[in-house]
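Table 4 source record.
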Amino acid sequence: MQASSRRFVLLGGVACLLPFRALAAEQLHIGGRHGSIDFAIGDSKVFRTTGSFKDWQGTVLVDDGDAARSTVAVKVNTGSIEMLDPQQTAMLKDVDFFDVAKFPDMTYRSKRIERIGDGTLKVEGEVTLRGITRPMALDVAVTDRRPDASAGARYARFRASGSLKRSEFGMVKYVEVVGDTVDISIRTDAWR
């Protein structure tokens, strides 16, 4: 065997011993058709109010080899907010709260993703609401993962939770009565 051929075989053998790493991250789709964004506000069980956003979509870029290279981006139609009481829904769409006429979208973009355990992640990102951007962390659990799912099929289920202070986004009306902390819960399937 010639020296160049031996070198090629040797390099090929060494390459096979190196840890496998996916060449590209995979983009998945999430949204209101396959999931929910729910919220609750109130410092006690007696005065706790809940609602949800019905129209939202996003992408999750998954890098299995390096979670830190993964990303999340979500866009929420603020006008799709829905409460049990239609009067509350109308009030939250008004200028004192989401001001949907002026700010029709709310966005979330990850800045850092860290694998905490098997199927759990910590996502540090920024939420932009009413033209104001603030940091927001999410605790994420990934279940029912199907890496071999075909295009257009469900890849995994995601559950995420976090919280924010509504006063940081200029929504201060009734803070002393209802509370300031808004707890967020996201459940969604991710699709190829």
